[in-house]
Amino acid sequence: MSTVRKIIHIDMDAFFAAVEQRDFPEYRNKPLIVGGNPFSRGVVATCSYEARTYGIHSAMPTTRAYRLCPQAIFVKPRFGAYREASQAIRQIFFDYTDLVEPLSLDEAYLDVTHTEKHTGSATLIAKAIKTRIKQQTQLTASAGVSYNKFLAKIASDLNKPDGLYLITPTQGAEFVEQLPIHKFHGVGKATALKMLTLGIQTGKDLKKLSLEDLQQHFGKSGSYYYHIARGIDNRPVVSYRKSQSMGVETTFQQDITSTQAVLVQLQQLFDKALTKVTEKQLTAHTLTIKIKYHDFVQITRSRTLPQTITAATHINDLLTELLKNTEVGRRDVRLLGITLSSLDDQPELSPVEQIDLFENTWR
Asked: Do 47 and 21 touch, CB atoms closer than 8 A?
């Protein structure tokens, strides 16, 4: 008989806003929005729970957030402070298990199946982690505890803020049956709408469809939906995951109109994206440009090259080619992005190349 896994999902509560309220007492108990100028084209990165009572949420345009709550405090993100807090929290995780899979600065999965601390109780470990986070960072976290990643992720969201929720193996199947389909992690808005048209409103409805039916309607994702409808998720907690892509983008204060201006901006974004890839000691073969027009219509164009994309690549010619089948030059552009993908590890240095003996080679 296989060992039942013990998975914890830790999700920090309103993380960016909480760091700001911790560091600046004058922001406490007030509606706070991290996202910059309310009169710019920015979006809400996160907001305090006081702001959420006004209907404000992440990814909302800051202009709309201002209309909903003009008295809110708007601040620019301080990513250095958030990374510092995230690193301190992550160090706490490693005191309990080496199997830590960060998803972002403010959330992570932990596999504590074989952890002996706190008599091996995942619930007690989660409580201890929450307590230490509060003591060491003055921030609160919510935790979900279950026997797989899907249920642990769902559980962490149930009693926010400062929550802890356990879903045992005997509760899993029934819990999923009662779960509204839009609450399923991995089911986005478009998929949820499609499921509703098929009469799928809850996990119980989803469970009625065969694997073949789900694959017919949802392709490769059909197998995932089939299994999570039964409370089954065998995905491991992966302590190291190689990046699949790296990109940068920018939203302009004023729309740009000319093709030449777009090319200049894309070249600058390419340089930044390539720097990120190089710093991670990776190489890329695919370049994708992202264009959002003034009316929020968004398109992408990609090209995969047989050779590695480097600073020596004729990038201007490649970008010009990718722009040919777009309406750049005829429609105003509000956002541009560059993503490099098809990533591989950089090849080993040849013997004739000089190596820095003091370079930190692990990652």
From this structure: no
